[in-house]
Amino acid sequence: MSQVLINAFHNTANLKRDAVFDDQRLMPICAQHDALTAAPGWIGKNWRPGGTLLMAINPGGGGDTYRINPADVTLYGLIRRFRDAASSDERAAGLRALSDAWIGIQATHNIRRVVDAVLDATGSDASQAAFLNVVPFRTRGDRPARSAELRRAWLISTQQQVAALAPRRIVALGCKAYDALVAAGADRSHDVVLLKRAIGDSRITPQAKEVLTRLREERE
User: Fold this and answer.
1) Whole-angstrom Cα distance, residue 20 to residue 16?
2) In which band, very low, low, confident or very high, does the pLDDT at 220 lie, cut at 50, 70 and 90?
């Protein structure tokens, strides 16, 4: 993993919430310590420039009745350990541990259906992919940020991560993520593909199946 990548992810992990949001309206009322912590995403151990980058709108867990679970404790503990790492070696090890844990945790959630479908269509696996959120903070009710806030998050953090990754394409996981990327202007410099998601990721939508077919045909 290059130092440029590590630095880009470390910068996002150190991002302050008030650097993105105009006010407190999207501050979750539960698990606020985690809501104040920027979640920088993950990088597969075999990532290479030209790979497929998966992007969602923001981390889940912002609901008013959300309760911290063991996976949260593990994930956000690793995020803070990576954020607070002082040396280059500690940061490299921290990002690797965080990425491996995040991939494993994500595989237990329903989002795995769409992630696995994209990876299968592109002939890759999680070790060759990367994942980011447009906004790296939880929001109350998992609602999207305002357009100005989306652009701000992109300009001061996420854009640097994408540039360091140098993906072939960005697959936006859901309409909210796609709209956020467009609002941020990401589509002007990157190939952004919309993959529509069903409620709760209970199935692969017809539109998503068409996109997956195109992705599969591109590599044949």
Assistant:
1) 7
2) low
